[in-house]
Amino acid sequence: MKAMILAAGRGKRMMPLTQNMPKPMLKVAEKPLIEHHINNLKAAGITDIVINLAWQGDKIKDYFKDGSQFGVSINYSQEVEGGLETAGGIIQALPLLGDSFIVINGDVYADYDVSALKQLHLQPGEAHIVLIENPAHNPDGDFTLSHLSNESQKYTFSGISRYHADFFKGLAQGVRALGPLLREKLNEHLVSTELYIGQWDDIGTPARLDELNKRLKAQ
């Protein structure tokens, strides 16, 4: 099982913190945010990791190198300036990822146990996404729980998911958002969902980052 950490975003809402630093390298509990993801993946027995790069990507590569000092093996997928959006970044990295893989947004902080995703039995073309209760900045949510046909309540996509490579079959490389693709495949009953109740933070603004660090320090 391999995993991909999405780290190519520009992080404009985090300015000025991201003026010369990629958002996943911002410190949470005195470590780069992305390092927490790498440690969690390693704890789950997932040591083959792909990280996509765009804005200030050299800083990520210089810090983690091949991953050996962190007990993992890291490959990098370099994107064009400005990045390829989420689905576009995954599509470009497919040759590095194998038949089935986990994807984690590099700008979230969560205590979700990714080893649970290893137990799933995805069929070709399927995906599984983890949803969370709606935070204040996304009150309307993104997706319903797909196994409840009459469900109207939408929940927020956590940025944690697993895909069979065939989920992206036939899609050309280039800039492509993930949300519309997930909605399309949900309608085709190719996406399963789960609702996670636990630690989750979207590091979307400097204020949210500061709040998270204060909360973790107080624990």
**Which structural class should the secondary elements be placed in?**
alpha/beta
Radius of gyration: 17 Å
* Strands, count: 11
Parts with pLDDT < 50 across at least 5 consecutive residues: none
* Largest beta-sheet details: 7 strands, mixed
Give the SSE string: EEEHEHEHEEHEEHEEH
| Spatial shape | globular
Strand order of the largest sheet: 5-4-1-6-9-8-10
Q: Could you report the average pLDDT, rounded to the nearest whole number? A: 93
Q: What's the helical proportion of residues?
A: 25-40%
Strand content bin: 15-25%
How many separate helices?
A: 6
Q: Compute the separation of the termini in Å.
A: 33 Å
List the helices and strands and how they pair.
Elements: E1 2-6, E2 27-28, E3 31-32, H1 33-43, E4 48-53, H2 57-64, E5 73-78, H3 85-97, E6 100-105, E7 108-110, H4 115-118, E8 127-132, E9 156-164, H5 179-187, E10 191-196, E11 200-202, H6 206-218
Parallel strand pairs: 1-4, 1-6, 4-5, 8-10
Antiparallel strand pairs: 2-3, 6-9, 7-11, 8-9
Tell me about this structure.
The two termini are 33 Å apart. It is built from 6 helices and 11 strands. Helices cover 26% and strands 25% of the residues. With 219 residues, it is α/β, with parallel strands linked by helices. The longest helix is centred in the middle third of the chain and has 13 residues, at 85-97. Strand 2 (27-28) and strand 3 form a beta hairpin. The model has no long low-confidence stretch (mean pLDDT 93). The chain has helices at 33-43, 57-64, 85-97, 115-118, 179-187, 206-218; strands at residues 2-6, 27-28, 31-32, 48-53, 73-78, 100-105, 108-110, 127-132, 156-164, 191-196, 200-202. Strands 5-4-1-6-9-8-10 form a 7-stranded mixed beta sheet. Strands 2-3 form a two-stranded antiparallel sheet.
